[in-house]
Design brief:
globular, SDR family oxidoreductase, oxidoreductase, Sc_DH/Rdtase_CS
Length: 240
C-alpha cells in the first residue's frame, strides 16, 4: 500500500521517501514549489527498483489535499503510511515581539499544523482500513526548549504535537506518532552552514544529526506496530 510523503522532494522528506520505498511502499512524493527536486527523488527511487510518482499540491488547501489523496489512490493504491513533513518557518528574533504578528502566526499554523490535519483527514478511511495504518508527523525539538527560528514557528510545531496525540485517538486502529528533529543541515541553513555546524557540535554523541538519521527513526515507527501517540527526539542529545 502507498506511502505519502509531503515535502518529499528535498532534505528530510527525500530521505524518508527513499527509505519507505526501500521498505516496498509505492511512494507519493508531494511537493509545492520543488518540482525539479521532486522529479529527482522519484527518479532515484525508480532507479533503485522502487515505485514512486510526484504530486504537486498546496497542503494548506483542504480541497487540494482531498484531490491529492484521490489521485494517489488511483495511481499507487490505498494509503497505508502518511508522513506529514511539509512545513516552513520565518526567521524572527525571539525577542522581536512586534514582528511576530497575527499574519505570521496564521501562515505558519496553516503550513505546519493545519496541513497535517488536512492530510490525515483526507487519508483517514484508507489508514483505518489498512492492516497497520500509520501517520508520522515531523515536528521540531524546538518545542521542548522554546527556542527556534521564531515564536510562531515553535507554537505551530507545539500545536502539531497536540494534533499527534489527538489523532492517535481519533484514527485508531491506525497509529499516529511524531519525530522531533534537532538541528539538521538542510537547505534552510544555506549560506549559514558554518554556524549550523558549530551549533550541531553541541550534540553529546559528537556528530551532526543527518537526514538519514531522521528517516531511520521514521522507518522504526512505521514498522513498530505497538507504538502510537509518541514523540521521538532525534538530535544526538542536543537538547539534553
Amino acid at each position: 500500500m502507498a506511502a505519502v510523503v509531503t515535502g518529499g522532494g528535498t532534505g528530510i522528506g527525500r530521505a524518508i521517501a527513499e527509505a519507505l520505498a526501500r521498505l516496498g511502499h509505492p511512494v507519493a512524493v508531494v511537493y509545492s514549489r520543488s518540482a525539479d527536486e521532486a522529479a529527482a527523488t522519484v527518479e532515484a527511487i525508480r532507479a533503485a527498483g522502487g515505485t514512486a510518482a510526484a504530486f504537486p499540491t498546496d497542503v494548506t488547501d483542504d480541497d487540494a489535499v482531498r484531490a491529492l489523496m484521490t489521485d494517489v489512490r488511483e495511481a499507487l493504491g490505498p494509503v497505508s503510511v502518511l508522513v506529514n513533513n511539509a512545513g516552513g518557518t520565518e526567521h524572527i528574533a525571539l525577542d522581536d515581539l512586534e514582528a511576530a504578528d497575527d499574519e505570521v502566526f496564521e501562515r505558519l499554523f496553516r503550513l505546519n499544523t493545519l496541513s497535517a490535519w488536512h492530510c490525515a483527514r483526507a487519508a483517514a478511511e484508507d489508514l483505518r482500513a489498512a492492516d497497520d495504518g500509520c501517520v508520522i508527523n515531523v515536528g521540531s525539538a524546538s518545542v521542548s526548549s522554546g527556542r527556534g527560528s521564531s515564536v510562531p514557528y515553535v507554537v505551530s510545531k507545539a500545536a502539531l504535537s497536540g494534533l499527534t496525540r489527538a489523532l492517535a485517538n481519533a484514527l485508531a486502529p491506525a497509529r499516529v506518532n511524531e519525530v522531533w528533529p534537532g538541528l539538521v543541515l538542510t537547505r534552510w541553513w544555506a549560506g549559514k552552514e558554518e554556524q549550523g555546524r558549530a551549533l550541531a557540535a553541541n550534540a553529546i554523541v559528537g556528530r551532526e544529526t543527518t537526514v538519514d538519521d531522521i528517516a531511520a527513526a521514521v522507518v522504526g515507527l512505521v514498522t513498530s506496530r505497538a507504538i502510537t501517540g509518541q514523540t521521538i527526539t532525534i538530535d544526538g542529545g542536543q537538547t539534553l
